[in-house]
Each structure stands twice: as structure tokens, then as C-alpha cells.
Design brief:
Layout lengths: L4 E2 H6 L5 H4 L4 E5 L2 E4 L6 H9 L7 E2 L1 H7 L11 E6 L10 E6 L4 E5 L2 E4 L1 H9 L4 H13 L5 H8 L7 H8 L9 H12 L5 E7 L5 E9 L4 E5 L7 H16 L3 E5 L1 H4 L2 H21 L1
Parallel strand pairs: 5-6, 11-12
Antiparallel strand pairs: 1-3, 2-3, 4-5, 7-8, 9-10, 10-11
Length: 287
Amino acid sequence: MPRLFLGRHAVEAGVLTPGQLRGPGVRRVLRGVYAPASVPLTHELRVEAAGLLLPPGAGGTGRSQATVLGVPLAGALDRVEVLLPEPGRWTMPVGVRVRLAQEVVPGATWRGVPLASAERTAFDVCSRVSKADGVADQDQLARGGLLDPMRFQQWLEDVHDPYVVHARAAALLCDPRAESPQESRVRVLCHDAGLDVVPGVEVRDLAGRFVARLDLAVEEFRVAVEHDGAWHALREELERDRRRLRALRDAGWEVVHVTAGMMREPGAVVDAVRRAIARQTRSSRSV
């Protein structure tokens, strides 16, 4: 059997029976599209499956396009995002999210599947979600080389979609220096509270020696804002983190560690950063 095929074609060719399509030897990827059971189910496979069902003039978009091009924004079981031309009465199977556009401007092609332009893909990624999530995903697109932030902002000037306001707000904060989605979300929280945070700041001591690269920083007040990921269980990692923290403090920086619990209460993040700024201000005045 081929890696991916339409079930009706296999039955018409006498390769499989309808009963075998429901058996253990094959898996249904999307309605009407099958693969041998030995083929791993990934989002990329589901995008390929959707490509077999796309009408003329349609293409992949959004998180699906980002994922197949190397920026993994979609999981294996997430819905495949496609862009279809309007007007038209299009139907796609369960597991496919349809976006509509008056014209689908083609971008790249991946394994025979047409893809939308980079700008349309970014619009579909960020226009229907919160600003924090939209910025996080845009940052990943830009960091992965799939989006030019300035070009995207210019492209949005001519868009009149009802969701364009959300996209423009997110586009203004896009920064390819962000290294993780959670870091981007912390940056949006701080920005919306009026805190001037910058990603990817390098700290050096008075002799010019490298000390650390920070997730985020309020440079004026030497306040580092670091998002804590999974607990570092290895002793070596704990020791390295402690040495890094001591080096930052010796260089005159205060570090705010943002935990998952704090992210559930956004005000806690902002308050912690503001308190750190106040302490640094008092410290500088006392010198």
C-alpha cells in the first residue's frame, strides 16, 4: 500500500475491501483518507491527508503550515488548518478547520500540498486568539525564519477582516529574539502593564566578561525577568543555576523568577517586577 491513499480508490482498484479499510492493517487519517497502520500518526501526515481533499485554489495555513515547515505549533491530533477560496460551498471532514479568503495567494508547496503566503499564515495564527497567544506564536514563526515582522505589519494595513484588530495588536509586539512561548506571554503581560521589557539581553561584568543571557530584562533598572520551566532535577543543573544567579547579583542585577502559578494570576507577575524595580531604585539612590 502507498503511504497515504484515498479509501475509495483502493476499493475501486481491488487492492482493499471496505471491510479491510476498517481492519487493523490500516488507519483512517481523515474521513476518506487512509494510511498503513505502521505509518506514525503525526500532524504532518494529517496535513498531507487534507491535501488530497483540497479543492482547486485552496491551501494549508496557520499552525498547520508552520508545523510542516519546521515550527511545531500543532500537535498530532490538532485540527488541520486550511484556507479555502470564497464564495463556494466547500465541505471538509471532521478534524479540519476551514478559513475563508476571497483569494488564496499561494506561497510554498510542501509534499504536493499548496500553502498560503507567509503573511496569511501569520494572520490565521494570531487573529482569533488572545494577544499573548498570538504574540507567542508569531515570535516562533519569526524566530524560525517563516515570517518577516515588518513586512507582516505592512501587509495588515490593507486587510479589512473583522479579526484584523487582534492581528495588528499582536504584530506590533512580535520579536524573533524570544526563545519560548511562555517567555513571549510574560513579555506581553509586562508590556500591557507599561513595563518596558526587552528579550535576549546579554549581561556582562565591569571587565566585559559574559555573565548571562536573560529571557527578559528591564535594562534601565537592571531587573531580569526569567520564566521558570520544569524543575531542574539534576544536581549539576541546580548548581549551574545557582552560580548564574550569584553572578547576576554580583553584576548588580535583581532576578524575578516567574513560575507557572504566577502565570495563572497575571497581576502577580506585574507586581513582582514592579517591586524589584522599586528595590533597585532605592538601592541606586543609597549608593
